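Job type: complex structure
Entries:
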Amino acid sequence: MGKALTLSRDSLIEFIGRLLENFQVIAPVKNGEKVFFDLISDPYKAVIEYEGHTMLPPKRFFFPEREILFTYELKERDVAIYDKCGELEGLRRVFLGARSCDIEGLKMLDKVLVGEFHDPYYKLRRERTIIIGLACNEPKEYCFCAYTGSGPYPSGGFDLFLTNLGDHYLVDIGSERGEKLVKYNIDLFRTASKSDLEKRDKIIRSVESKIKEQSFPEINTIYEALIKNFNADMWKEYGELCLACGKCNFVCPTCRCFDIFDDPNFDLKSGKRVRVWDSCHFLSFTRVAGGLVFRKERPSRIKQRVYHKYCYSFDEIGSISCTGCGRCIELCPARIDIREIVRRVVEL
Amino acid sequence: MKNPYIPELAVIEETRVEAPGVKTFKLKLRHGGMFTFTPGQFIELSVFGYGEAPFSVSSSPLQKDFFEVTVRKTGMLTSALFELERGNTVGVRGPFGNGWPIEKMKKYSILMIGGGIGIAPLKPVIEYVVANRKDYEEVILLYGAKTPKDIVFKKELEIWREKIDVHLTVDIGDNSWKGRTGVVTILFDEIKVDPKETYSIQCGPPIMMYFVTKKLLELGFPEDRILLSLERLMKCGMGFCGHCMISGKFVCKDGPVFSYSQIKDFLESAI
């Protein structure tokens, strides 16, 4: 897509300001010491430089932790259903500041939720959200995207992608939509020089080499090793450690398991059908009628997550479903490290 | 874009008590459309205010202006469902899943094994086979219930007996019970099948399916003609919610019917 451009820092702020006139804008913002994605109304609130990635991935803006699928009203011999999807039809959003791993995570979710069947809530939000990515300048110690093929630079999936070159930003165009956005605001952009492009490549290479200071096995060897070692003793160890809290699922950019239930209003005549995130670590996850639980033991549940990410996912979407963002490692209260699990399993 | 989470409304036309804690609900789509399905497929049934749960369709696939589900009362949703009566409205999504290969089984014998409420997903096949009896060779049903009272489809069993070979057993008999007592696998001594020319289809508790499958393998059934309907708590029916995932496959869209040749390669045990 098109040639690369640049934006000065001031122009970027101006650009965000103009976006705010036409779109809802989601951007990284500071909350205490942590950086989160949130809706902004002031372009200066956007934190355009931050280390690694945000605390939570963009997932919840496309697939919220609690979503009302529809509301219902019980009437005399009838039920009225109000589809909540309709409310998303008018959505016009810009998601600003997504890292490469964030974008690749959304692409993995796309393959599940807009695959054989379409999840309309997710699909509408995806279609109606412009993605303006932001290159990672400084990975966190948990980051391993360079090994999972999710970073530091995304293979498409963005409309625009910014790289901070110090005093200005390089802008790569990734779609027609992105190109239009630039065209409408062409006064803010300059043509990128050869040295701008070289600087970008250098930044990407440097992030990549930092990540690769630690080792991680070849993806294909992980698949084979997992198939071979389903009954290995090491799973028991991790089963002992794991608190089955589900945090790793909730901070994961690609975990999408959910539960559906009804939330009746106090009149008991109306209510909502709600979808909430669920976790394969929960005992209730595999419970069926009559109380039988298929994954009763914690090792079987921790395995489900690891196998889904690195093994079953090949069946499902043709690749792993881990972006290497390391959020599950950073936030696990039991300090379980999926990199270590994977390294160990290939050593068995 | 059609929203696959929005149920169609259906009216309860009739409820029938099959056994203590088991009822059949006859449903008709509100908009008057036909309901077509393959035996073995399931629906997501909404009881508004309580949510949604998966149930196998238990009526004949030849019947298209209504359909039935046969439900065992086990939790909140089914308890609420049991309170509903003729004229009440429920929601329906589906049908979902693959179902039994009724076409492929033509010209073959069929050995059906049902345990408890697991006979519900077999009933549409039985109805279909009974209606198209000439298309199939020998057809045998082995059915095990907890007690004589728990035997469901009692009336239908009598009708089926005229066309297919029916064998019953109960775990615990009573004074009136003249039949066999014991788990469903004991019925294998009453039957003669040619494993090379027979499809076996089964649904029941995992422990039953485990022993039945073992028995079928011993008898020499080819692995791809041992078919099982698996149970998981499918929430969405589209492979999204993850609840029914087994070893990379989804019971809701890749199943619920799997062959033994498939499940034996699962990393996790399916039954």
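Summary: Chain B has two domains: 8-96, 109-229. Chain B is about 15% helix and 30% strand.
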